[in-house]
Specification:
Elements (H helix, E strand, L loop, with lengths): L2 E10 L2 E10 L10 E6 L11 E3 L1 H9 L3 E2 L1 H10 L17 H38 L1
Parallel strand pairs: 1-5
Antiparallel strand pairs: 1-2, 2-3, 3-4
């Protein structure tokens, strides 16, 4: 039997609540499961202790039995320090597109030009004052 540690959705519409469960991979997402291993409430703040609750011993047992975790559950386990962090290949998803890079370059060049314009008049009176002092 192929085991998965995954999330089973509960809660009402637009108010999600998840159970972390050990289930047969052939069962539906919210269907029959073997054991409830914890809960996840995404509506709570990220620093709340009640956001993710897990039965660590039972999760380690199921991992020892060969259960595979889904991506979201594995991220929770990595944050708890139960499993080591995986390298994820998300190569281009976070990089800005062509138009965004063009806008950023244009903004940077305008900022540089404004900085040069602001610096140039400030230096000119200092040079003139130094020239007047040397002339006297």
């Amino acid at each position: 039997m192929a085991m998965k540690i995954r999330l089973a959705r509960g809660g009402s519409k637009k108010r999600p609540f998840y159970r972390i469960v050990a289930a047969d991979s052939r069962m539906p997402r919210d269907g029959r499961y073997i054991e409830k291993l914890g809960t996840y409430n995404p509506l709570l703040p990220k620093d709340s202790e009640d956001r993710v609750k897990m039965d660590v011993e039972r999760i380690q047992y199921w991992l020892g039995e060969g259960a595979q975790t889904t991506d979201r559950v594995s991220r929770m386990l990595e944050a708890a320090g139960l499993i080591e962090k995986k390298d994820r290949a998300n190569l281009k998803k976070g990089t800005p597109g062509k138009k965004a890079t063009d806008r950023a370059e244009e903004k940077a060049s305008k900022a540089a030009a404004a900085a040069e314009a602001a610096a140039a008049p400030a230096e000119a009176p200092v040079e003139e004052a130094a020239a007047e002092e040397s002339a006297e």
